[in-house]
Write a structure and sequence with these properties.
The structure is a single chain. By secondary structure, the chain is an alpha/beta fold. The protein has helices spanning 78-92, 172-183, 208-222, 242-251, 253-265, 280-295, 318-331, 344-352, 386-389, 391-403, 430-436, and strands at residues 3-7, 13-17, 33-36, 59-60, 98-109, 120-136, 163-170, 197-201, 227-232, 272-277, 308-312, 334-339, 369-373, 412-419, 422-427. An 11-stranded mixed β-sheet has the order 7-6-5-9-8-10-11-12-13-15-14, with helices on both faces. A 4-stranded antiparallel β-sheet has the order 3-2-1-4, with no helix packed on it. Helix 5 (253-265) crosses helix 6 and helix 6 crosses helix 7. It is globular, with a radius of gyration of 23 Å.
Length: 438
Amino acid sequence: MKTVYRSKSETGLIVRANPSWTPTNGEPRQVETTYSYPIEIALAEMEEVDVAEIRPGSYRRLYAAPNRLPLGLDHSDPNVAAELQRIVYLKKADRERFRTIYYATNRKVADAGAVGVSRFGNDIGPRISYGSALVRIPPTHRYGDEIDTPFVGWLDDPEKHFRVTALNRFDESAFYAAMRTTLSQPDDLESLTRNDVLLFVHGFRTTMEFALLRPAQIGYDIGFEGKTCAFSWPSRGKFLAYGEDQRQASASVLALSMVLRKLIEQQTDGRVHIVAHSMGNFLAMQALEQLADEFEDLAEIDRPKLGHVILADPDVGESDFELWTPRVVEVAKTVTLYHCSKDWALTGSFLLNSGQSRAGLRAWSLSGLDNVDCDDVSTEWLGHSAYADDSPLLFDIQLLLQRDARPEVRPLRRLEDLEPGHPYWQAIPEVAEVIEGF
């Protein structure tokens, strides 16, 4: 039986040993292969060992399912090892439990005197408003946990609830100046996202507050070091307002397109990444299609490029998705689709849209689109938020944004091609065990 011990020294040395090997004088002995990682990074082939085999005070048992490497979590890959190290560091670091989220919204100002999220209502306003919000991250939150909010404000518990604690207003020039400060920074070899902007576009039934909490959670968990932003369109925030939300989303495409265009204009060294969720894809894909139209007459070398575009659970009709995706691919570095056949929210949307199937329920054979099947990792009962609430997908996003890692080197299982030249990937649930074991 293979046995794995981890030294408690500062080097964090991890040694894989033969069955006959035992610790000597409290120090690991060189054996077949020795891996040096920062402390807390674990190997893939770990198996449980009897506590009697471990010298008390010198070693601690590590647990993981055997045969992890064939499932795609290759700890010898420097990108995987580095991002696992990031998670460990961020867990242990005494870091600030507040995160600044910048916002652009076309919601109408409902209460000009309000200092919090109640300033904005659920109708479309005459102009785009800009600002920043301070989001509190509770100390009980762990990587990939669902966002916990108080049922009513007076039940707020700082130890367990996310909360927007302050809202600041910017004029348009100040907002884009802040973005330019980040996007114009030179590349930093120690941080691949320090000069990037991550823009989140929310979906159906989302309040202004949750539109700020979600990007805060994603950015905090993956250790995104650039600026994190939200584009908040005026969703009603109610289950029974699906039709109204569709109309408001459609009427918000132009506003999002304007924000994206101006963000791209600030780029020099940095990149703008987009994470769109659910109905937010309906806006984002059309806005990106408009950008592709604007850039069409430019020479290829002169066309501005976005960073990575993530289409999570898109509540978009299949015909529209097939039409818009090629244009999105034109303006993005990569385009990733997270889809789930068990997504009950999209199944309900299918019924509300007169039987028009939704794009997020299956994979697609479209050039330039990376398909990731989420069926096995989605733990939420609706199956609609796994991209942020389930650690295997959050870690996949982390590798994509932080390392520019292609699917073939991320912890994904490759399935049979949908069509020749169109690979199909599946998220691996066992990745959660590794992350949770740290």
